[in-house]
Amino acid sequence: MSRDTDHDRNAAANPAGDLVAAAATEPVEIARVAIVGTGVIGASWAAHFLAHGLDVIATDPAPGAEERLRADVAALWPTLAGIGSIHAGSPDRLTFTADAAEAAAEADFVQENGPEREDVKRALFARLDAAARPGVVLASSSSGMAATVIARDCAAHPERVLVGHPFNPPHLIPLVEVVPGKHTAEEAVRTALAFYTAVGKKPIRVRHELPGHLANRLQAALWREAYSLVDRGAATVADIDTAIAYGPGLRWAILGPFANQHLSGGSGGIAHVLEHLGPPTEAWWRDLGDPSLTPELAAKLVTGVDEALAGIDHTALAARRDALLSLLLAAKADADLP
């Protein structure tokens, strides 16, 4: 992926971009969302938006895409109903077109979920930008690409292009990372944050364009050390999964790393932790691994997962995970947490 040299400093220096005046249109009331790309992420987004009472117009050029999408939405609907996420919504409010430009022209908000390829994204967003009404935000679900790159061929209104990266599956996981590009207008950012909040999401604004945005970088840091520990022979795949799932992962599902660290410091809070555990933590940092994902290491990881999950049906495991996740989210909604 190519990157502009000023990606990392653009948000802090000029978060509204240099085209704010071009975005001075009245905010669009969002009643219909275009889903561009209807794979796993797109189908999950479609179900989520439909459940929140919105009209959805979906588009995907793949043969049989409409039939698969309707089947996927139907399969997700009982889960959404079970967690109380149906807000005057209906799968009957889903329409489909093979023409991405038509979908964008009819939408009040566009959520793109295409392949993670720069050439594909740029060409697709050029079409969406040419077709969508002024003021309609064009959001990409990209897990790592920069909005500045995605919008390079948008000749009409590049100021309304941004990243709106969900976490899989979007119909369950609340997080959405909103990442503006060099030319993204502040109005587009505000619209995206307000819209995602209105449909039950927990959006955050990422203030610099970085490969992988924010949460994927945090995951990558953990995976880096986990892969290194397996490669060194210090732990098995099953050991590491147990360590996280039955250790810090339980706390991380309730509060984030900083809040948990603050609580672990007792009355002294995070200041006490940094004073007393800061030096050993720095020593641990210096000892962290720097693995390369060689074929040998990849084989170790695959074999380790196969051994740890031997005899467990993949689909059934995912369903049990999502059912427990639904219970956790319901409990969090009833708790007074920051």
Give the terminus-to-terminus CA distance.
36 Å
Main β-sheet description: 8 strands, mixed
List segments where confidence is low: pLDDT < 50 over at least 5 consecutive residues. 1-26
CA-atom Rg in angstroms: 22 Å
Which structural class do the helices and strands define? alpha/beta
Please write the string of helix (H) and strand (E) elements. HEHEHEHEHEHEEHEHHHHHHH
Helix fraction by DSSP (H/I, runs of at least 4): 40-55%
- The strands making up the biggest β-sheet line up spatially as 3-2-1-4-5-6-7-8
Total beta-strand segments:
8
Strand percent estimate: 5-15%
Provide a count of the helices: 14
**What is the residue-averaged pLDDT?**
91
Shape: globular
What are the salient characteristics of this protein?
50% helix, alpha/beta, 338 residues
